[in-house]
Amino acid sequence: MSENKWEKLQAALGATGISIKDVAEAAGIAPSSLFRALSGQTKAPRADTVDKLEAAFVALTTARMASFRETLALYGFNPIKNPNDLMASHMTALNRTRKYFGTDGIRGRVNSFPMTAEVAYRVGMAAGKMFMSSDNRRHLAVIGKDTRLSGYMIEPALVAGFTSVGMDVRLFGPLPTPGVAMMTRSMRADLGVMISASHNPYFDNGIKLFGPDGYKLSDEVELAIEARMDGNILDGIADPQKLGRVQRVDDAQYRYVEIAKATFPKSLLLKGLRIVVDCANGAAYKVAPTTLYELGAEIFCLGVSPDGMNINEKCGSTQPQAMAEKVKELRADIGIALDGDADRLVICDEKGTIVDGDQIMAIIATSLAAKGQLKGGGLVATVMSNLGLERLMTSKGLTLERTKVGDRYVMEKMREGGFNLGGEQSGHVIMLDHATTGDGLIAALQVLAVLVESGRPMSELARQFEPVPQLLKNVRFTGDSPLNREDVKQAIADGEATLKGTGRVLVRPSGTEPLIRVMAEGDDATQVRAVVDQIIGAIAG
Fold first, then answer.
1. Does residue 45 have a cis peptide bond before it, meaning omega lies within 30 degrees of 0?
2. Please, are residues 109 and 533 in contact by the beta-carbon 8 Å criterion?
3. Which amino acids are annotated catalytic?
4. 158: how many CB neighbours lie within 10 A of its CB?
């Protein structure tokens, strides 16, 4: 087996141009001993030495791929589209180097590549093997899911993959994404998995992976898993007596409820508050109502009757109109809407007015700052957050750090800068003091705590800042990216000059579709619209 793997490694080195010297140094092995094996003076290195070299080679290759992707993204390169490529017919070069993983795990239409049982099985085998150490102990993966019908297909495929390499599995059943992340860490698991496509319709599904620390995996680790998935997947499977075992964790939901309740101030209660909670017929359909009820609220539930196909259907954070109407009908104090995996939150006040993620972050940030509990001197948000939020932070002597769109980039910046609050306008709110990913329920509890403490109606509390007029439009294109054309570059520069000092312009390609997203915001709505239309005209022309 060692000689065969050694030959494969030599062939791979030749194909990539990476030197054996670099691989040996990365693996902490003296290159001189390998040169003798390469020249035929000695036999192939020992099996454990080849394994170390293989791991070092994957790491070096991954680093090179990341560098190539960044270069191609800056260049704006789009590969020739292959109509038979089910993988992603419209993905940019940046994403096409990732065969399975996208910006947030693996996601797609069920029973179409990559969201198939076979891929899930390979994920289980590859990720399971990668996260198993050489320790002589049982290794553990934990799996949660939302309420999609396809979870019954994806879950056992993952279980088969994990157990085949000797990893034990614990099944949570329906549980919010942040709950899976928490339980991964609290149960000392080697790996956590959430089966969900978040706010997408029921016919999509996805696989998100968490490391033993409860954080989402890095791009580099995901690429290494992909390499294993497409390699000799049977390498390292367990002997029959060492196969993994599977158990259900019946109290997973109750554990999460207690964790969530513990984030609410012990001196406060929700007694007297009338709350409409919309669980999107998703993962939080039990835990969210239970948590709010046990904290003393009078609750009215929507989206708590999942049937496998009604997740996110005319309900939840992406379609909060039903919640808003119910709040007005019942004269409730506040409405809370979560998405399918409950990592996203949208609120409405007692008048039915929707409160987005920017205002939610502002409520929590100002409250934490007043108590001296806001870390990092501000908060982290994406380039899409409203300029009004940035001005509010500045007026209070705080900062707003911006990142690319995506909660994983928000998280990276938070950890890098020591922030404990960040999120997205769409409703992902990350509170690192309580969770390692966005948590809609815990974010809602922090808003409710401020509501109770202030004694003010939600309509007053929700208007932390006056949003600057913001307009976003998408332009579909074919062929090469229009962003490389001089006329488009000039239109963008003209727009930036027009709004200089009073607003900003953001033009970016979609990561998954042949779209250019054009956003502008500023104090003058008419001016903002004119700038967006001018840039769109140049792109379309």
1. no
2. no
3. 198
4. 26
DSSP string, 69-138: HHHHHHHT--PPP-TT--S-TT--HHHHT-SS-BBTBEEEETTBTTBSHHHHHHHHHHHHHHT--SSSS-
Distance CA(99)–CA(97), nearest Å, equals 6
* Rounded Cα gap, residues 184 and 388, in angstroms: 37
Interaxial angle between packed helices 252-262 and 287-294, expressed in degrees from 0 to 180 and rounded to the nearest 10: 40
pLDDT digits (tens, 9 = 90+) for 471-501: 999 998 888 889 989 999 999 999 999 999 8
Confidence (pTM): 0.79
In a 10 Å sphere around its CB, with 0-12 CB exposed, 13-18 middle and 19+ buried, how is residue 443 labelled?
A: buried
Torsion sign (Cα): 116, 204, 100, 229: negative
Angstrom distance (rounded) from CA 478 to CA 449:
49
401 phi and psi angles, rounded to 5 deg? -90, 130
Phi-psi region of 177 (alpha: psi -120 to 50; beta: other; left: phi over 0): alpha
Q: Indicate the pairing of strand 298-302 with strand 204-210.
A: unpaired
Give residue 510's region: left, alpha or beta (phi > 0; psi -120 to 50).
Answer: beta
Angle at 246 between CA 240 and CA 252, to 5 degrees: 160
Q: Give the count of beta carbons closer than 10 Å to the beta carbon of residue 305.
A: 11
- Cβ contact 420:433 at 8 Å: yes
Q: Which of 281, 282, 287 is nearest to 299 (CA)?
A: 287
User: What is the pLDDT averaged over residues 449-477?
Assistant: 94
Give me the mean pLDDT over the 275-299 stretch: 98
**Number of C-beta neighbours around residue 439 at 10 A:** 32
For residue 384, give the nearest of 527, 536, 519 by alpha carbon: 519
Q: Looking at residue 97, what is its pLDDT?
A: 58
